[in-house]
Amino acid sequence: MAEYFALERPLLGPLPAEHFETGRTIYPLVDRRSQINVRTNRYSVPVAFIGQQVKVLLRSSELLVFSDRNLIARHERLIAKNSCRLDLDHYLEVLIRKPGALPGSTALEQARQAGKFTPVHDAWWSRVREAHGDANGTRELIQVLLLHRTMAHEHVVAGITAALQVGALSADVVAIEARNAAEADPQPSHDQAAGKPASRIVELPDNIVSLTHKKLTGLPPDTRPLPSVAAYDQLLRRSRPPQTGESS
């Protein structure tokens, strides 16, 4: 066979410069549940696209969803019929207004199974609900989940872990600690290598003390005396110099 190919090779045309796409293109409509139906299976897309027609590129092992030329969702292709694959991130804008819909949701369960919603997330969520109530505590969690859009998964988990260690039940503290973890990581994350936007690191002056660091290490007691304005009393005791024309 090799000798036959050697004879045919000079007669072959050049390979095309453009990538040849083997996927099948479909144009489904996003339903009110923010899902599309592709070959008897359902996949989620961000809630901002409810009611719109999107372009789906169905490949052998994955499914890409586009709005115009923008990639808005990517899913592993489902093989079994009448199945669904939901991305929890696609529903965060709705869940922050309706936090009671998060516990027990299919999207949350699938996120747990995929390892995106870890036991660390669950532990922090439990603590923050105890402190702030179910609704407000869940909203704090959703603010943390939104960090995954711009930061690597491992950095956000590190931020949650640090916040748990000091009992900090605020999404702002998690964000600060996640940025610290990203800044201290010498290697680019898998998300950054894949083109995910890097987190925005805020440089603080050296004399600014982190609240979390304060809780971790403790600051020595301030033994300085309280400020006093007694020294200014001497201004009241000074005699007023005589004005020109006044008798002494």
What keyword list fits this structure?
elongated, 12% strand, 248 residues, alpha+beta, 3-stranded mixed β-sheet
What does this structure look like?
The protein has 248 residues and is an alpha+beta fold. The protein contains ten helices and seven strands. It has a four-stranded antiparallel beta sheet, with no helix packed on it. Strand 2 and strand 3 form a beta hairpin. Helix 4 crosses helix 5 and helix 6 packs across helix 7. The longest helix has 14 residues. About 8% of the residues have low confidence.
Overall pLDDT = 85
Characterize the overall form.
Answer: elongated
Low-pLDDT segments: 197-217
For the biggest β-sheet, the strand order reads: 1-4-5-6
Q: Any idea what the radius of gyration is?
A: 30 Å
Strands, total number? 7
Q: What's the oligomerization state? A: single chain
In short:
With 248 residues, the protein is an alpha+beta fold. Helices cover 36% and strands 12% of the residues.
Would you spell out the secondary-structure blueprint of this structure?
Elements: H1 2-8, E1 24-26, E2 35-38, E3 41-44, E4 55-58, E5 62-67, E6 70-76, E7 84-85, H2 92-95, H3 106-113, H4 119-132, H5 134-146, H6 153-166, H7 171-184, H8 190-193, H9 211-217, H10 234-237
Parallel strand pairs: 3-7
Antiparallel strand pairs: 1-4, 2-3, 4-5, 5-6
Helix pairs in contact: 4-5, 4-6, 5-7, 6-7
